[in-house]
Design a protein that fits this description.
The protein has about 425 residues and is of the alpha+beta class. It contains eleven helices and 20 strands. Helix 4 runs antiparallel to helix 5.
Length: about 425
């Protein structure tokens, strides 16, 4: 098998989560009744609130330091978050000492190979951008993008132009740039079948997120009426191909771009719980942690809590980044928590800000600061609300950023074409 099912030899209520950021999955699992032990790069306050035990690993030793961190946790099933899919050997090493609920190294290697995915997708009549291992003969006019094979949050992606830096070829791919609107599909897979949880629009390269031109800045859920006409059918076909051909299990995310003619193009597969999935949980009430673990044959804890019903609204999230070195002070954190409580009350009591860093650190430029949430009666309304909140928060630590004016509404978020 290319994935590993968790057995009954571990305590039923213990769950180990490791990855760059464990907060969203840990909150989902804790709400469903698991006793979470988590290791990530941040160990922010909301993760410590959700988990029984947390460990913050040193970025200089990441991701190998996750092995040592996990060794300090009690026996239990484990699963991973992004971007551990870039390290299949580490996944297999950790799976050799405790049961893995998710996709093991062989499946991850296969589905993270853009050429294998492209072959399977094209055989099913699906669209994938022209992709190359080497830039030989490719025009340097910006019509191709240079992407790292070990990608994460859109980092280190740029256009292939005369001024573009050279790269180690084995670490990169060259992919034709498809202008359009970025989207994502969220699935739960098991036994060769895929269940579509929902579709979302991605916020990529939004200047108000301060993350960079291709950086992941957030997502917004789409109601069925807002789905691009051809994306739902394409997503269903992609789900079948991935579940059958690659034998994936649990939560799986697929990134698309929908071009000006409405055609969806497959960009990337992430064989784990993705950043947009917590928004589907807010909208539908489906526990992402429970759905993922049940697909991996992990039963719910004996003290399982009743499922949330969801509110049916469109939910958006934005990851705000530091544009300059940002000191984290006790006073600043207190201000953010006050904002979180005020906005959370407006949103029905759900947390409005997550991943708030602990005081005493100085965040580097382009480092994530925190995640902001908002909801609305449509995707555009939810993104307008999240943009407004983001600008209010950014203006508090960046004098050059102006808070939004109610007299000048923001442009529709779908008007921007990035991919």
């Amino acid at each position: 098998m290319d994935h590993q099912a968790a057995g009954s030899q571990c305590p039923a209520d213990v769950l180990i989560i490791v990855g760059a950021s464990a907060r969203a999955l840990a909150q989902s699992a804790a709400m469903a009744g698991w006793a979470v032990h988590a290791a990530d790069l941040f160990a922010d306050d909301d993760l410590r609130t959700a988990a029984v035990q947390t460990t913050r690993v040193d970025p200089r030793g990441y991701p190998s330091s996750l092995m040592a961190a996990a060794a300090g946790f009690p026996p239990g099933v484990w699963c991973y978050t992004g971007a551990l899919e870039n390290y299949p050997p580490l996944i297999d090493d950790l799976a050799s000492v405790r049961p893995l609920a998710g996709n093991a190294g062989a499946a991850v290697r296969a589905v993270r190979d853009p050429f294998l995915v492209a072959e399977a997708a094209r055989a099913a009549g699906l669209l994938v951008p022209d992709t190359h291992r080497l830039p030989t003969g490719l025009p340097r006019d910006g019509s191709f993008l240079v992407k790292p094979r070990a990608s994460g949050s859109g980092r280190s992606i740029h256009h292939w132009t005369p001024g573009a830096p050279d790269h180690r070829h084995e670490a990169m791919i060259w992919q034709r740039h498809v202008p359009g609107v970025p989207h994502a599909a969220s699935f739960i897979m098991a036994r060769g079948r895929a269940r579509l949880l929902g579709l979302s629009r991605q916020l990529i390269g939004e200047p108000w997120c301060l993350g960079g031109p291709f950086a992941y800045g957030g997502s917004v859920t789409l109601s069925a009426a807002e789905w691009p006409s051809r994306l739902a059918a394409t997503a269903a076909a992609v789900g079948r191909v991935l579940a059958e051909r690659f034998d994936l299990v649990g939560a799986v995310g697929v990134d698309f771009v929908v071009d000006a003619d409405g055609r969806p193009w497959i960009l990337e597969v992430n064989p784990r719980v993705t950043a947009s999935m917590e928004l589907h949980e807010r909208a539908t009430g489906v526990s992402i942690a429970a759905a993922h673990l049940e697909a991996c044959t992990v039963p719910r804890p004996t003290a399982s809590r009743p499922a949330d019903t969801g509110d049916g609204r469109n939910w958006a999230k934005a990851v705000l980044h530091a544009a300059t070195p940002l000191p984290i002070t006790t006073e600043r954190v207190a201000e953010w928590r006050t904002r979180a409580e005020q906005w959370g009350s407006d949103d029905g009591g759900r947390p409005a800000i997550a991943d708030i860093p602990t005081p005493g650190q100085v965040l580097a430029p382009r480092a994530p600061v925190f995640t902001v949430f908002a909801q609305g009666n449509s995707a555009d309304a939810a993104v307008a609300a999240i943009r407004s909140r983001a600008l209010v928060l950014a203006a508090e630590w960046m004098p050059s950023v102006s808070p939004p004016s109610a007299a000048v509404p923001p442009p529709p978020p779908h008007a921007r074409c990035t991919a």
